[in-house]
Amino acid sequence: MSSLTEKDRPIVQLLLSTGTCPRCVLRFCCVGSQGLYRHPHQDLLKDLQEFLKNKQEGEGTACLDVADPPCKRVRLEHRGEGAGDVNHNGAIPQIPSADDGNAATESSAGKVCNVCLGILQEYCEADFVKKVCQKVNSADYQFTSFVFSVSLPPQLSVRERAAWLGVQQQMRNLGLPLAKDDIVQLKEAYKWIIHPQLSEELGVPADGKSLFEVSVVFAHPETDEECHFLATACPDCFKPAKNKQSVFTRMAVIKALEKIKEEDFLKHFPCPPSSPKNLCDALEIQCNNGAVFVAGRYNKYSRNLPQTPWIIDGERKLESSVEELISEHLMVEFKADSFNFSSSGREDVDVRTLGNGRPFAIELVNPRRIRFTAQEMRRLQQAINDSSDKIQVRDLQLVTREAIGRMKEGEEEKTKTYSALIWTDKAIQREDIAFLDDIKELKLDQKTPLRVLHRRPLAVRCRLIHTMKSEYIDEHHFRLHLKTQAGTYIKEFVHGDFGRTKPNIGSLLNRTADILELDVESVDVDWPPSLAD
């Protein structure tokens, strides 16, 4: 049961007489019973009319019946503030008499609310809820719960402030100050009404932690310019921002309303606000699923395949990439809008990745499908592998966002094993390269290589070659197996990069050396977990 008391009577009378809808009246009376807001609009109007007609004896309590949840009682504290406040025309707004309940409710009936602009009227009805659910169902998302969000026109905050000032003035005149903190916020009241209806229609519960979001964007072009006076009064609050079409964002308006003086506000905006001619527009009904993350390891067998699309000055250099060969299948199966690819390091276009492969993860943005069995993931992995002989994928699995951090940690902390085919200008014998096998923990100073200087900052990086093992081929060729610190530039360690990497194979052998082929044999990151075939 939720109650309105005699102290609420002047608020109800004032707001109804100035065109405020019943649900906004309850908000300004600090009624916290969620169930009461769900009553039909006309029933609430009749109940408020009865409340104005029937003065109760004693404390003058009138009850509006509602089952549950329990009510939040109005909290009014005497602040000892003076009376006699005036509106922007210099006059005190008049409260309709207690005997004039019909006149007050007739002022509100059939009009667009002067505070919520119709959001707590038209957009709480079953027809709109069905429209939202039709949009959700037609989008073909998988979800087991939902979170509902609403974007309100910023001028609603201005109108609520004006209505609040009107209420505050009248309560001061009656010696009954009102604590603004107790006013039920419009978004909160709207969700109280809409959540149960959406939940019943969609067949799943509302959950504030759900990854599936249903959102409605409201706009009211008729009153769009009502915020503009705030830019003159509080220019510091309205600054252009990237990705914002207007400086009059809701947060900027709220900030300005907190800053502007009451007398300045009343000079520019009517108090109470006037009723608009038109309802708000529901501009957009949107659905969005939280990202899904897929991880695995890939092997790259081509020396003519970049990890990511190779595009220079808008021109594509090679037809495909590791990223695209994997993601195109995931995008189709997950029905996602877009993706973001990441991996534990990267190899050059002419470098193969062998062994157990390189860990990678793909973020699938706004996927329609989110549930896959282990068997379905294996079939998806097989489809990727069957589509190209340039790559192979293993251990494909769903992971969490947090788990991806383990892959990125290993990118710089772990070791990597390489195999390099090396050419020398001067003839070599086995004994000329045998000493390389005995070198342990060789420290390098590597200045940013010339070939990556366009995308990496100039710096000298200290790296370690943990071990080397040479394999003699002929007088001008040998293969070198290296285990190195992650982040070591192997090509530059071989040819020296014009002295930018010291020491290097050329300086160690005292002859010119160059690299002909390079393979990544292992990336020692223990992630993602290996799966049984």
Describe what this molecule looks like in 3D.
- The protein has 3 domains: 6-52 and 112-226 and 269-288, no CATH class; 291-411, Alpha-Beta Plaits (2-Layer Sandwich); 416-523, Alpha-Beta Plaits, CATH 3.30.70.3190.
- It contains 17 helices and 17 strands.
- The strands form 4 sheets. Strands 6, 9, 10, 11, 12, 13, 14, 15, 16 and 17 form a 10-stranded mixed beta sheet that branches. The protein has a 3-stranded mixed beta sheet with strand order 3-4-5, with helices on one face.
- The protein is of the alpha+beta class and 533 residues long.
- Helix content is 31%, strand content 23%.
Notable characteristics:
elongated, Pus10-like, 10-stranded mixed β-sheet, Alpha-Beta Plaits, metal ion binding, 533 residues, alpha+beta
Write the layout of secondary structure elements.
Layout: E1 2-4, H1 9-17, H2 22-28, H3 34-37, H4 41-53, E2 62-64, H5 101-108, H6 126-138, E3 147-151, H7 155-173, H8 186-202, E4 212-219, H9 228-233, H10 250-259, H11 262-268, E5 281-289, E6 292-300, E7 311-312, E8 315-316, H12 322-334, E9 338-343, E10 352-365, H13 374-386, E11 391-399, H14 404-413, E12 415-424, H15 430-433, E13 442-447, E14 460-474, E15 477-485, H16 490-495, E16 501-502, H17 505-509, E17 513-523
Parallel strand pairs: 3-4, 10-17
Antiparallel strand pairs: 1-2, 4-5, 6-10, 6-11, 7-8, 9-10, 12-15, 12-17, 13-14, 13-16, 14-15
